[in-house]
Structures are given as structure tokens and as C-alpha cells.
Write a structure and sequence with these properties.
The protein is mainly alpha-helical. The chain is 37% helix and 6% strand.
């Protein structure tokens, strides 16, 4: 059954080479989304730090908006 469990990294490398953890991602109440913050969220999703659904719930957006950030 372990093959069905996903092991998540404690951190991933961000867009500027910085270490990203759940604690140093943009706060959930962020309202001003500059490209750096968007890139951090995208890196967290792509690196497996959080799922796309978790990012959407945390930042109150839909998957379509997240997809536009990934382009």
C-alpha cells in the first residue's frame, strides 16, 4: 500500500534559487500578486510541496487561475 502514498519534500527550490517551505510561501491572505510570488507558488506545486488543489484552497483561486500562472 505504500506505493499509493506520496512523500512530500520538506522544501523545494524557488524561482530565484531560494529554499521554499510551506512556512515561507506567500501568506494565504496575500492580495497583491507580483510575478515573484506567483512563481513561488508555481514552484511549490511543481516541486510537490503542495498539490494544485491545496494551492487553490490556500490562496482562494480556481485551477484556471493557477494554470495562467504556470504559463
Amino acid at each position: 500500500m505504500l506505493e499509493n502514498q506520496r512523500i512530500r519534500p520538506a522544501s523545494v527550490i524557488g524561482p530565484l534559487g531560494e529554499e521554499l517551505t510551506l512556512d515561507n510561501l506567500p501568506p494565504p491572505e496575500t492580495t497583491r500578486w507580483v510575478s515573484r510570488r506567483k512563481a513561488q507558488v508555481v514552484a511549490a506545486v511543481q516541486g510537490g510541496l503542495m498539490t494544485a488543489d491545496e494551492a487553490c484552497a490556500r490562496y482562494r483561486m480556481d485551477r484556471e487561475e493557477l494554470a495562467t500562472w504556470q504559463r
